[in-house]
Amino acid sequence: MLKLGDDTLGDLPITVTRPTYDRAALRPGIVHVGLGNFHRAHQAWYLHRLMQQGLAQDWAIIGAGVRAPDAAMRDRLAAQDYLTTLIELDPDGMSVEVTGAMIDFLPVAEDNAPLIACMSDPAIRIVALTVTEGGYYGGPDGAFDLDHPDITHDIAHPATPRTVFGAIVAALSARRAAGAQPFTVQSCDNLQGNGDITRAAVLTLAQQTDAALADWIASNGAFPNSMVDCIVPATGPQELALVQRLGIDDAAPVTHENFRQWVIEDSFCAGRPPWEAVGATLTDDVHAFEAMKIRMLNAGHQVLANAGELLGIETISGCMAHADIAALFQKVQQSEIAPHVTAVPGMTPDAYITLISRRFANPEIHDTTRRVAFDGLSRHRGFIHPILRDALVGDTPIKGLALVEALWARMCAGTREDGSEIAPNDPEWDRLNTLAQTARTDPKAWLTLYDDLGDHAPFADAFGAALSQIWKEGTGAAIRAYLADT
Questions:
Q1: Which fold has domain 2-283?
Q2: Could you tell me the pTM of the whole model?
């Protein structure tokens, strides 16, 4: 096998697309925190494609992380000059591309000193984030959680913060003191209003230690909203074996589908790459695109994943191949989600259901139900609960959504229907598992996770009935009963 690196790019198989630009001449402009598979298959790919056209040569990416496990990714990528092999998987064929928009990865330190120093450099004009939905320190009411131990630490020790938001505030403070302009903070996570949420987090934290700094950031900074979309499985033995069969020794390859979408609010305080030249949509109104994707695709993933996990179905494509789960997905989408989604230019809700159904059913994408179900508390709060709120206000059907929530509660009890164990799969697993066990006989225990939603009798009653039926008759019977209910 050919060890991936700058000095071996010319030796890659002719079927593998590789950088045509001079990577040694690239200059950094972006720090990206959270160098997981999604970022490398999505945002880094768009930048790579610009560089292939001779553009954005001063916008190269410096990677960063704020968690100890990020150091392992840094080591893997550093050993191959921060290159990534992207493998596009589609029933019609496979294509392979090596991307090189990333040129460095900062040391991961508990006090985030290397990250703060790098972001303080005026050459850095964008700080981007993929830190997962649960990484924004949102409390039960959605507001930034000032009582979280990590945040109380950052307030008490602003020069040595633990969190990415503390590091951002410290770097912006240094830039203000040096007379430099702020950078744009660009969230690329699946949160509706992700830029607004990021702005609130940064400003709320800054206000705790320096009100004048918070005012300066509010007046001069930028936090664009965005919508990101590409199905990117986690890398495991199957993906590593695939890249090796291609003759490439890549310790961190990425597989992905043949669909990408990036809709970005055109609001930047220090410039930006011309992403629209490679297919991104720049707009003043992201929210309609964002709502369609989050409510239909991300919520749709949760419709599938918990049912699949309970029935021992390993992948999302396997769920779509299961007649009952696929029918559940279609009915919930059409009758309970689509009524709360508006069309966007070029796409109606019905057409979007067709699009995501095809994407989810792609058998070449080994996207596990476990990955999709991970961090369910954050994902259900972000993706499902807002639809329920709108449905209750509009008095539209909710039985399918209540069933989806009941399947999640049953999954958090920690066993599949065949008796096998479901390993902990949520940062709040111990709490969820305890509530799920209690909810087996007292469904109202689970509804404590829903704030005022749990007080609405139509939802509480439908949830309780669904959960009781799942425990008594099984997942399949509960799904079929919903499908038969006209």
A1: Rossmann fold (3.40.50)
A2: 0.89
